[in-house]
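Anyone? Bumping this.
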Amino acid sequence: MANKKYDTAQAALDGLLFDGMTIAVGGFGLCGLPETLIIALRDSGVRDLTVISNNAGVDDWGLGLLLQTRQISRMVSSYVGENKEFERQHLSGEINLEFCPQGTLAERIRAGGAGIPAFYTRTGAGTVVGEGKEERIFDGERYIMETALKADLALVKAWRGDDKGNLLYRKTARNFNPVVATCSRMTIAEVEEFVPAGAIPADAVHTPSVYIRRMTLARINEKRVEKLVTRTED
Amino acid sequence: MPWNRQQIAARAAQELQDGWYVNLGIGIPTLVANLLPEGIDITLQSENGMLGLGPYPTPDQVDPDLINAGKETITELPGTSYVSSAESFAMVRGGHMDATILGSLEVAENGDMANWIIPGKMVKGMGGAMDLVSGTPRVIVLMDHCARDGSPKFRKHCTLPLTGLNVVDMLVTDLAVFKRNNRQGLFHLVEKAPDVSLDYLQQKSEAQFTW
């Protein structure tokens, strides 16, 4: 079996990084983030990145770490509201931001991974999102054309990864990870636990191994909670 | 006397019917989850990839891998399913949800709404709002009737960049409830908060509505 496992996140990234590259990153807020790989990316010093990610982390965690170091020059995201530094860099024109509706973002990434160059959607028709985009009427309704997103490198976080590269995600930490895993020819999975091939039942695999080129163990699992809300016992 | 946030949410909850699949936005709409009418089964969706939202966790149930779209810790229920973001929005964009309840900065008399950006000031992003309003057959907006400076939020035309064109079916504010049966006519006033007069409502609304 081809060995996809790398000892460290730094080793997994070795030879893949170049300034000006496009990187897609899984996660929603701080949930399901490839924390170890993001830190290795920061430490690599690679610059002028275009990052495709639903969110931008918070000031001092997740992609916020790469904003602090000004390694990101462009982002494609749906919501960056939890990151003050990002808001500041955007309002002052230091960073280029393309806002993309969340469902359109997920579908553009999915399309990129599935060989579909573009698709039509109602989402954003008649709004600034539709400006400059081809528009067509289907069944009397306005649709805009959205193009696929692909990345030079994709980084995902999974709960379990088997020897073959099949992945299983856990609860809402799944989020963007399965589509992000498909949108590049070079996807690295950071997994919380390595398991033998066959340990993830074939019927339960979320991301099949063909999408995963490299794997590394998640050595950082802070899993910060952005908004802790609890109730008292009933 | 204006309704408070709980009362606005409770009024919206009355609109939900047994068996519906519903997405709740952040803010007042989140309160709807705890105010669902007795005896009806509503499945709540969270667009980060969860169908079947449970209550907030007790302190020992907190799981960082389990959050709602507002990034709050949450729990699952028997029958919950987890999906990817693409699948989650396929449900929304494919028209499979029954209703979405969300907040807004402005609603126009023709059903346009604007809730995602104040140019030059607030740059957060639309998140899933544009997908939700353009993909869901029933869109219910909950918001204060007027902004903090007293200016109307129920407008002739939206002044802020739009989230969706002609998408709002029902509007519940702290002063009144408005509905329209199709997306062609004006909103109709169906209920007023206690001691709120029609004159006062008209004065506080830039939008035309029927009554």
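Late reply, but here is one note on the structure posted above: Residues 102-114 of chain A form the longest helix (13 residues).
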